[in-house]
Write a structure and sequence with these properties.
The complex is a heterodimer of chains A (173) and B (157). Chain A is mainly α and 173 residues long. Chain A is built from six helices and no strands. The chains are: A mainly alpha (173), B mainly alpha (157).
Chain lengths: 173, 157
């Protein structure tokens, strides 16, 4: 999964923290060779993967809009809401200096082919929205911060509603 | 003294209070859809009836969850004060949106109550309410259920 590199980094950081805590007591006057690593909050790894997934949604919509501008009336408001999701999620991430979020999911979404045909495009976005809404609900189980859990649940509700709207836009009336 | 047992009891109490909050919102929605339905016809009437049934079923689920936790579900009020007068189909639709927003916000409380077992349940109920609200509104929200004050303002750049 794309979350793995992030996860590994957080685990590595935690191991480092343990080492630091374990040796700090016996470091007699010796200067610590590294700057103190940023303390990884328990939710940082998860938040990074949620941000990457949301970033991928923005990429999908941006590509769809560039290939099929005629869908703007349906698709643009949803893209704007994903950008709002991304902004709120990023607000909650305190990025340690020099750290970069994992680009894997974003890159994959950028490379993904937008299918041909209006109905197929709407179905492609709808599937992405449903998957993302379900991913967020699953991810809730491991969130430590209640306010982050609420933000993720609200975004997941927004995306489930996007999927419903895309379904009705893609079905004949 | 607050030991681990005290913290668990606190979480349970918060979970119970949030479940009661969701139950109260469902009861208000059941009452409100009864009013709204009277002003709707055809497809909108059928939708209101289907949603009314969904809220009744959610109410029963919540009552069951509360009883399973040894808590008595609070009874519904006989009548609820509506947020505005409803005398037309347009106002009935506005009421339905208002009710769904209230239900979404109540389940948001459940997601934040700290009881991991209730989180996914609350989040799925938020999805259902947001989908119903969208079918009335014809458009979606970026943050269903979230009070605007809880969202960070965009950073000044």
């Amino acid at each position: 999964m794309a979350a793995d590199p992030t996860r590994r980094r957080v685990l590595a950081a935690s191991a480092l923290m343990l080492t630091a805590a374990g040796t700090a007591g016996c470091a007699s006057g010796q200067a610590w060779p590294w700057a103190r690593p940023p303390v990884p909050a328990p939710d940082v790894g998860l938040l990074r993967s949620v941000i990457a997934a949301e970033d991928a949604m923005v990429s999908r919509y941006t590509r769809v809009l560039s290939v099929r501008p005629a869908l703007a009336a349906t698709v643009s408001p949803l893209l704007r809401q994903h950008q709002q999701h991304l902004a709120q999620l990023r607000e909650r991430l305190v990025v340690p200096a020099g750290a970069r979020p994992s680009p894997t999911m974003t890159a994959r979404a950028r490379q993904a082919q937008v299918p041909a045909g209006r109905i197929a495009v709407l179905a492609y976005l709808r599937r992405a929205e449903s998957d993302q809404a379900a991913f967020l609900v699953r991810a809730l189980a491991t969130v430590a911060t209640p306010s982050l859990a609420q933000l993720m649940a609200s975004i997941s509700a927004s995306e489930a509603a996007h999927a419903a709207l895309l379904r009705s836009a893609g079905s004949p009336r | 003294m607050t030991g681990p047992g005290g913290a668990a009891r606190g979480r349970k109490a918060a979970g119970n209070a949030a479940l009661q909050g969701a139950l109260a919102a469902e009861n208000a929605a059941i009452f409100g859809y009864g009013v709204a339905g009277a002003y709707l016809i055809g497809r909108q009437r059928a939708t209101a009836t289907a949603y009314w049934n969904e809220h009744r079923s959610a109410r029963d689920t919540l009552a069951g969850l509360l009883r399973a936790r040894g808590e008595q579900p609070a009874a519904a009020a006989e009548a609820y004060k509506l947020p505005f007068g409803v005398h037309s189909a347009a106002e009935a639709v506005r009421l339905a949106i208002f009710l769904e927003n209230g239900v979404t916000a109540a389940y948001l409380g459940l997601v934040g109550a700290g009881d991991a077992g209730l989180r996914a349940f609350g989040a799925r109920a938020m999805q259902d309410a947001a989908i119903r609200a969208t079918s009335w509104r014809g458009s979606t929200l970026a943050f269903p259920g979230m009070p605007a004050a809880r969202l960070s303002p965009p950073r000044a750049r």
